[in-house]
Write a structure and sequence with these properties.
It is built from three helices and 25 strands. With 377 residues, it is α+β, with helices and mostly antiparallel strands.
C-alpha cells in the first residue's frame, strides 16, 4: 500500500514539473529564395522612341455661327492658301436678318432727320421769343433719343452683316488639310470643328515616353531623328514635355523641334528619335554590374543586398553603392564582384545568417540566372 502511494506521488510531481518547464523552441522554416549570379554588362544609355512628324502649328477651323453646310471646297490632303474659301453655310436666314436690320436703320435715320429739322425750327422760334425754353429742351431731348436709336440700329446692322459673313469659312493659315470633320448637308453648331490644317513652316517630331524615362527628357536636350524608310538623320532639340500623362496610355508626350536649316520630312512620316541620357553619361560604353530593383533594400542610410553563401546556404548582408538607374535595373558602382550570388526577390522578409534553399519552379531546374540582361533600347 505504501509503495502505491509513493508511486502516485512521484507521478504527480513529474506532471507538475513538466507543466512548469518551457516548451521546446520550433525550428525556423527554411525559405526558398531566387538568386542570380552577378555578371558584367556594357552600359548603354541610348534610348529610341517611335514617333511621327507633325506641324509646329495646327489650326482647328470652325464656323462662328451655326447652320447647314451647303458647299465644301477643300478636301483631305489639299494644300490651301491664306484666305481661301473652304466651306459655306446656308446663309438665307442671315441675309434676311441683315435686310431687317437695314430697314430698321433706315427708319431710325428718318426719325433722326425729322427730329433734327424740328429742333432747328424750334431753335429759330426761340431766338424770336415765340416759344418757351422748356419747349426747345423737349425738342432737343427728342433729337438725342432719335440719334441713339439710329446708333443702335446701325450697330445691329453691323452685327447681322458680320453674322452673314461668318457663314463662309476661310483658311486662316496656309498649309495642308489634315482632317475633314464635317460633310455637306450636315448641320453644325457654332464652334464645331470642320477642318484641321497643318500650317506651313516648322515641324516637330512627336513621341511618347514612359514615366521612368521622363526625368531624362528636359527642354533643350539635343536629339537625333531618323526618318523612316530613307533612314536619313536629322538633328533636333526637345521643345516641349507634357506636364501630365495621357489618361489611356499613361505616357508623356514629348515634342522635338527639327532644325530649320535642313529639309523637313513629310507630315505624318514615321521617325525614330534617340538620345544619350545625361544620367550615367560617364559610364557610357563601360562594363558595369546591373541588378533588378527588387534585389535592393534599405539598410540604415545606404542600400544593401543579400549575398548567398553556397557552402552553408546562409545569407549575409552586403552594402552596395548605386551609380544610376537604367529602367527597372540599378547600376552598381561598388560593393559587388562578378560571380557573387544575390537574392533577387523577397529581400524584406529575410535576415542575416538565415538558412535558405534555392527556389525551384515547377517542372524546371533551380533558378540561378546571371544578372546580364541586355540594355533597354
Amino acid at each position: 500500500m505504501k509503495k502505491m502511494i509513493f508511486v502516485a506521488a512521484l507521478a504527480a510531481i513529474s506532471l507538475v514539473l513538466s507543466a512548469c518547464s518551457k516548451p521546446r523552441p520550433t525550428d525556423e522554416p527554411v525559405r526558398a529564395v531566387k538568386v542570380l549570379t552577378v555578371g558584367l554588362d556594357t552600359f548603354h544609355t541610348d534610348t529610341e522612341y517611335a514617333g511621327e512628324v507633325r506641324a509646329r502649328v495646327e489650326a482647328r477651323l470652325a464656323f462662328r455661327v451655326g447652320g447647314k453646310i451647303i458647299t465644301r471646297q477643300a478636301e483631305l490632303g489639299q494644300r490651301v492658301k491664306f484666305g481661301q474659301v473652304l466651306a459655306q453655310l446656308d446663309s438665307q436666314d442671315y441675309k434676311l436678318a441683315v435686310d431687317a436690320a437695314r430697314s430698321q436703320t433706315a427708319a431710325a435715320l428718318t426719325n433722326r432727320d425729322l427730329a433734327a429739322a424740328e429742333f432747328k425750327r424750334y431753335r429759330d422760334l426761340r431766338e424770336q421769343s415765340f416759344i418757351s425754353p422748356a419747349e426747345l429742351e423737349r425738342r432737343e431731348a427728342t433729337l438725342k433719343a432719335s440719334q441713339a436709336q439710329l446708333d443702335q440700329a446701325q450697330s445691329q446692322l453691323m452685327t447681322q452683316s458680320n453674322q452673314a459673313s461668318y457663314a463662309v469659312l476661310v483658311a486662316n493659315v496656309a498649309g495642308v488639310v489634315t482632317a475633314v470633320e464635317a460633310e455637306v448637308g450636315q448641320v453644325v453648331a457654332a464652334g464645331t470643328p470642320v477642318f484641321r490644317i497643318a500650317a506651313e513652316g516648322d515641324r516637330d517630331a512627336v513621341f511618347a515616353v514612359p514615366e521612368d524615362r521622363l526625368v531624362s527628357m528636359q527642354p533643350g536636350l539635343k536629339m537625333r531623328v531618323k526618318v523612316w524608310p530613307e533612314n536619313t538623320e536629322l538633328s533636333g532639340v526637345v521643345r516641349e514635355v507634357s506636364a501630365s500623362a495621357d489618361p489611356v496610355t499613361r505616357t508623356f508626350q514629348v515634342k522635338v523641334a527639327l532644325s530649320g536649316n535642313q529639309k523637313s520630312p513629310a507630315l505624318g512620316a514615321t521617325v525614330n528619335v534617340s538620345s544619350t541620357a545625361t544620367s550615367g553619361a560617364g559610364l557610357q560604353g563601360k562594363q558595369v554590374i546591373k541588378l533588378p530593383t527588387s534585389a535592393l533594400r534599405q539598410e540604415g542610410p545606404g542600400t544593401a543586398v543579400w549575398l548567398l553563401d553556397p557552402a552553408s546556404m546562409t545569407l549575409r548582408s552586403q552594402a552596395v553603392k548605386i551609380a544610376t538607374a537604367d529602367g527597372n535595373e540599378a547600376v552598381v558602382a561598388a560593393g559587388l564582384e562578378p560571380g557573387m550570388q544575390v537574392v533577387s526577390a523577397g529581400v524584406h522578409v529575410l535576415s542575416a545568417g538565415q538558412k535558405v534553399t534555392l527556389y525551384q519552379p515547377k517542372g524546371g531546374a533551380m533558378l540561378n540566372a546571371p544578372a546580364t540582361p541586355p540594355a533597354a533600347k
